[in-house]
């Protein structure tokens, strides 16, 4: 669907110097990440890119054995609304 790439605590769509969408996180402690920012360009809005990025960060957290503190309002809303993501959520 979307080609989601990873670099330096960020998952993104687009090119490294020209990201069309991204979600970023900050590692905190050895078992938590803080999701602090989500961005989707106007050209990709309404196509499910933001949701795909949240899903990718949830999968990443599970693979790494991390819990998620979603400070970004968009990510927080997506994770709280989707019960299958609650296993990685710190409330």
TrEMBL record:
PROSITE patterns attached to this UniProt entry: GNAT, GNAT_YJDJ
Q: Domain named N-acetyltransferase: which ranges?
A: 1-91, 3-90
Which molecular-function annotation in GO is an example for this chain?
A: acyltransferase activity, transferring groups other than amino-acyl groups
Write one Pfam family the protein is assigned to. Answer: Acetyltransf_CG
UniProt cross-references to SUPFAM superfamilies, sorted A to Z: Acyl-CoA N-acyltransferases (Nat)
Give the protein's recorded name: N-acetyltransferase
**Native source species:** Neobacillus rhizophilus
């Amino acid at each position: 669907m979307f080609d989601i790439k990873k670099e330096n605590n960020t998952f993104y769509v687009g090119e490294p110097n020209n990201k069309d969408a991204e979600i970023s996180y900050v590692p905190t402690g050895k078992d938590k990440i803080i999701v602090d920012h989500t961005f989707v360009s106007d050209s990709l809005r309404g196509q499910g890119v933001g949701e795909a990025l949240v899903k990718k960060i949830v999968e990443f957290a599970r693979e790494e054995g991390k819990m998620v503190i979603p400070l970004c309002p968009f990510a927080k809303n997506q994770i709280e609304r989707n019960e299958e993501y609650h296993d990685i959520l710190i409330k």
